[in-house]
Amino acid sequence: MNLVYTVFSLSTGAYIKTLHVPDLHSVEINTGMGEVALDGDYPETSYLRGDEIKVAPEPPSPAHVFDYDEEVWVDPRSLEDILQALRSGVVLSRVNFLMACVRVGVLSQSEALIGAKGELPPSIVNVISSLPSEEAFEIQLRWAALTEVDRLDPLILVLASAMQLSAETLDDIFGIHTQ
Questions:
Q1: How do strand 72-74 and strand 91-93 relate by DSSP bridges?
Q2: How confident is the model at residue 179 (pLDDT cuts 50, 70, 90)?
Q3: Short-list 16, 27, 15, 22, CA closest to 1
Q4: Least C-beta-crowded within 10 Å: which of 39, 82, 97, 138?
Q5: Which whole-number Å values give the CA distances from 98 to 36, 48, 105, in the listed order?
Q6: Do 143 and 118 contact (CB within 8 A), yes or no?
Q7: What's the rounded Cα separation, in Å, for the pair 121 and 125?
Q8: If 0-12 CB within 10 Å is exposed, 13-18 middle and 19+ buried, where does residue 98 land?
Q9: Entry pTM
Q10: Tell me: the pLDDT tens digits for 2-29?
């Protein structure tokens, strides 16, 4: 019959591992310095706080780490890292993108209707007219074929830069909010 022990860190209280061993000697040799082995099988989300074994709630995201002193999940990423994670993979249909551009005042309703037909709105045509002809052609071609708009698509980033739109305005268009 196997014994089941759970090993915790003495300094943080963090779960380290669960032991399934034949005897107490095996528990001793599998418990390192600064660790304590307690009788029982506790989940990996458990931690030792004083003499009490507690179970942490599920983390809000895979990026969160548990602060054993405060007993809360914290996100160690910088605001910029969080924004990049939020921005990656955010995609709008062309129609929803155009509606959002109207909502934030980047395009007028009439320009959005032109954009919905696959044509470039006049304000964007004016902006790209100052770009090299190859770049302007590529923007026109990509826009005409566009069905979905990705927040980090180079086309959108070039247009945003040419139109002097801030990253915050683009985030607003794509529904990305940090608060």
A1: unpaired
A2: low
A3: 22
A4: 39
A5: 59, 53, 10
A6: yes
A7: 6
A8: buried
A9: 0.64
A10: 899 999 999 999 999 999 999 999 999 9
Q: What is the pLDDT of residues 164-176, one digit of tens each?
A: 999 999 999 999 9
Q: How far apart are CA 168 and CA 38, in angstroms?
A: 51
What is the residue whose two structure tokens read 């062309």? 94
Distance from the Cα of residue 80 to its chain's centroid: 11
SS (H, E, C) the chain: CCEEEEEEECCCCEEEEEEEECCHHHHHHCCCCCEEEEECCCCCCEEEECCEEEECCCCCCCCCEEECCCCEEECCCCHHHHHHHHHCCCEEEHHHHHHHHHHCCCCCHHHHHHHHCCCCCHHHHHHHCCCCHHHHHHHHHHHHHCCEEECCCHHHHHHHHHCCCCHHHHHHHCCCCCC
Classify strands 3-9 and 15-21 as parallel, antiparallel or unpaired. antiparallel
Identify which of 102, 25, 32 has the alpha carbon closest to the alpha carbon of residue 17.
32
Q: Determine whether 41 is exposed, middle or buried from the number of CB atoms within 10 Å of its CB (0-12, 13-18, 19+).
A: exposed
